[in-house]
Amino acid sequence: MPAETDLLRIDDQLGAEERLIRDTVRSYVNDHVLPDVGDWFEAGTLPRSVLTDLGKLGLFGMHLTGYGCAGTGAIAYGIACRELEAGDSGLRSATSVQGSLAMFPIWKYGSDEQKDEWLPRMAAGSAIGCFGLTEPDQGSDPGSMRTHAVRDGSDWVLNGTKMWITNGSIADIAVVWASTEDGIRGFLVPRGTLGFSARDIHKKLALRASITSELVLDSVRLPSSAVLPGVTGLRGPLSCLTEARFGILWGVTGAARACLESAVSYATTRTQFGKAIGGFQLTQSKLAWMAVSMYQAQLLALHLGHLKEAGTLTPTQVSAGKLVNARSAIDIARQARTILGANGVTLEYPVIRHANNLEAVITYEGTEEIHTLAIGQALTGISAYR
Predict the structure, then answer these.
(1) Burial of 365 (0-12, 13-18, 19+ CB in 10 A)
(2) Catalytic center residues
(3) For residues 369 and 263, is the Cβ–Cβ distance under 8 A?
(4) Which of 97, 124, 253, 293 has its CA 20 to 30 A from that of 324?
């Protein structure tokens, strides 16, 4: 972060490895993402070469150990998410889906054969994964999913539809959650399996530099070896979401920083009434509150990172972080847009792109409402949504 906006020197608390990861990812984003990401956003695409690069940088599953994964700490992973999302939420989303939603369940709940087959390739970026939980009619209530799997001899047969699946149409392996007579189970569905198809979702106005798909399972037959053996029930997919939400609560601080930096740069160069608009009190008030809100989000992310590394982080704490940091980031983006005026709605500047992306981020992997109720239940002991 440029010195003029890094007033609290929060990054001074980072260790040597964390700073190296910060600088490496930031350099990649500056050199290979920012020059083109506006065009990707406008075209509604994310080049596969970018995912290959992220794999070569060691960012896929970087917080996992073994199987070619980097085995970094939680804060290092968070820093990488922050720097990726300073480029675009689509990059961080692709990375967190790969590592936390596709690789993590295989690493945590998979068989040795499943781990050996998929994790090294996914860590290297030569195989891409996706996570099939959300359905067209079941978002916040995954326990009511309609996708189901039934036994047929030693095989399983899956039927159902999954929606809003990041990386869906380019994934080599899909981690699909389905209801069974024994409870919810996870299944590994390879690309090209008979009856399995993916269709991209178009006309999005957020996360356009990201592949989002619908998965269709039409009598998909899988061997028993395709089941994740280590978990049954909602605990499986929800634990994956907790991992991914941790990356989000870090990532959105990068989007917030990019918007603040853009607003500061614009305010100190744009002149009206004979002076830079950054010299007017109303503009300075906006910038000050944006900065303070960002510092609060960064400090919360760092605190939760320490809890995660200590092994004490709870899902409720992650809900609090995702809820407030995503809200802070979108508020900062919207305020930055007002400073940029009409220029703020063009892709010449990053602000409207981040603002649009954050409209999706406050909804996916737990809506604001669900995270609010999760915190309310922790405070009162009463569930408001069951």
Answers:
(1) buried
(2) 365
(3) no
(4) 97
